Every structure is written in structure tokens, then in C-alpha cells.
Amino acid sequence: MRPDPAEVGRARRWARTQLASSGIAADEPTAEVLILLISELVTNAVVHTGRPAVLRMRLVLGPGPEVPGAGTVRVEVRDRSEVTPQQRHAAGEETGGRGLELVDVLADRWGWDMEETGKSVWCEVDRGTPVPMPLQGDARESPYPLPNRA
């Protein structure tokens, strides 16, 4: 991907196609979470580093038949910057600084690895595990807000 914010949309479209071909439906909660995570990781790479990046996604199926299609989806975004990602805590009306906070909340695991020529920022989402849902009240009270589908 070029270091251009327009690449984020292209990465989302590519990911949707890859997820569908792996049997993960677009309306499945796992797919929605993964698309948001990909948006955040790609945005960080192309906006904050100003360098080209590479997106990889891999589905590793689980060992047992107890949950058909269960497994882990790993997303990696590699760039040539040696600057490590910094999780910020945006205040009030700030328009940036929430990306890695979202990744931290939505991914089952995430981190980064330094490589010879830059770094790889990655996250993993387990498929076939329950999606946290609010028990009572509205979505604003939940740490996992639900999308408004009105």
C-alpha cells in the first residue's frame, strides 16, 4: 500500500473479499471487528509512518469440531518505519489517538515485532468464541458498543 490515506478503503475492500472467501460472512461480528481493526492498523501505518505498508491476513482453524469454523484470524501490517506504535489516550474532542485503544479493546491479542527493515504490527481475533454483549441498559453503558442499525 502506498503511504496514502485512500489506501485504508482499499485495504477494507480487500479484507472483506478475503474474509468472504474464507467463509466468514460480512455480517458476522468477527468480520465487522476485523474490518475495524484493519482500518486502524492500516491508518496507523500509512498516515503516521509516511511509508509504504503491506497487509497480511491469515485464518488458522481450530483443532476441534465443537465449534465449526472456529479458529484465529491474524492481521499483520508491515512498514519500514522503526518507530514503535504508541498507545495514546485521547481526551474529549480530540479527533485522533484512539486507534490502538480500539485495537486493545477489540482484539484478543495484539503487539508488534521489530524486523530488519521496520516493524510488523499485528492483532489476533479468535473466531467461535462468544462476542461480549451488554446484559442490560443501552449500548452506551457497555464497553463494547453495538452499531446502530436503524
Distance between the termini: 34 Å
Rg from alpha-carbon coordinates: 16 Å
Summed up, the helix count is: 3
Provide the residue-averaged pLDDT: 78
Q: Give the proportion of residues in helices.
A: 25-40%
Please state how the strands of the largest beta sheet are arranged side by side. 1-2-4-3
**Outline type:** globular
Q: Which spans of ≥5 residues are poorly predicted at pLDDT below 50?
A: 130-150
Order of helices and strands: HHEEHEE
- Structure classification: alpha+beta
State the gist of this model:
The chain has 150 residues and is an alpha+beta fold. The chain contains 3 helices and 4 strands, in the order ααββαββ.
Task: Report on the architecture of this protein.
- Helices cover 29% and strands 23% of the residues.
- The protein is globular and about 35 Å long.
- A 4-stranded antiparallel sheet has the order 1-2-4-3, covered by helices on one side.
- The chain is of the alpha+beta class and 150 residues long.
- Helix 1 (7-21) packs antiparallel against helix 2 and helix 2 (29-48) runs antiparallel to helix 3 (99-106).
- Residues 130-150 have low confidence and may be disordered.
